[in-house]
Amino acid sequence: MTTRGGSPVAKLRWLRSELRRARERAGRTQKDVAAEFGWHPSKVIRIEQGSVTLDVADLSVMLRYYGVTDQDKISEFTEAARSAKEHVWWDDYRRDFSPELITFVSYEASAVRNRQFQLTMIPGILQTEQYARAIMRLYDDDDRIIDRGVALRLDRQRILEAPDPPQMFFVLDEAAIRRPVGGRDVMAGQLRKLKELADRPNVSIQVVPLAAGEYVGMKGSFTIFEFAGADQDFVVFPEQTLGIVTAKTPEEISQYVATFFELEDVARPAADFGQIVDTVLAES
Fold first, then answer.
1. Distance between CA atoms of 197 and 214, rounded to whole angstroms?
2. Is 164 left (phi over 0), alpha (psi -120 to 50) or beta?
3. What Rg do the C-alpha atoms of the chain give, in angstroms?
4. Where is average pLDDT lowest: 90-94, 122-126, 237-241, 258-262?
5. Which region, left, alpha or beta, applies to residue 185 given φ > 0 means left and ψ of -120 to 50 means alpha?
6. How many whole angstroms separate alpha carbon 238 and alpha carbon 111?
7. Which CATH superfamily groups domain 8-83?
8. pLDDT tens for residues 140-157?
9. Known InterPro entries for this protein (predicted)?
10. Fewest beta carbons less than 10 Å away: which of 46, 102, 221, 263?
């Protein structure tokens, strides 16, 4: 697996932000670029948003138009454009799952920090195989798709064993660790896995107690991915009933980041997590 800093996702994010900066330094607008090359304006927008990969030939003419002549810089741009097209492990799941889910997985595998709040269940990247299978059966009754979904969850967990694992911060509603998904034994195994993961220096797990009453997290689960060296540092995925979406504006993103910090304050300290798990196991 590629490391996050050199992953195609990270390269594409770097490329889009650096191209935009080069255009702005040259005093060109997106309309100027489109008119110069006879492109539809939406093509330039998609390139700078990172929603499409960039052909090296198109990159070359854009850099020339922007006045970028330094050969080392040109080589860096070219290498990033080529790397963004490399095959990655999550490509193997594209036929079975939505583009939105694959985008989520690609960001998860590439981020340097992962902050997630979950109201109802254990986050996918922390699930045991048995817990994941029970959850997948809520969404599909096709055994092949269930198997693929479980495999995807387990593949996502490979970043936990990487030489440079991301910093991961989880806040869970107490209901998520008390609900016996898959039955008592499956849930006990899941809780023991969470306790082991929480002992790692790069993983923090906190629980919002039921006694907290109403709190801001009741509005819904969400995930925040933070990237290094990118112009837009955060990508936010609020969890929606009809699928995965992303927060669009800087104001929306800032609000989610602030909300997560507020949730950390409402939750019990991460140092208490082992004790919380022991209590739940003893009571189940």
1. 28
2. beta
3. 21
4. 237-241
5. alpha
6. 16
7. lambda repressor-like DNA-binding domains (1.10.260.40)
8. 999 999 999 999 999 999
9. Cro/C1-type_HTH, DUF5753, Lambda_DNA-bd_dom_sf
10. 46
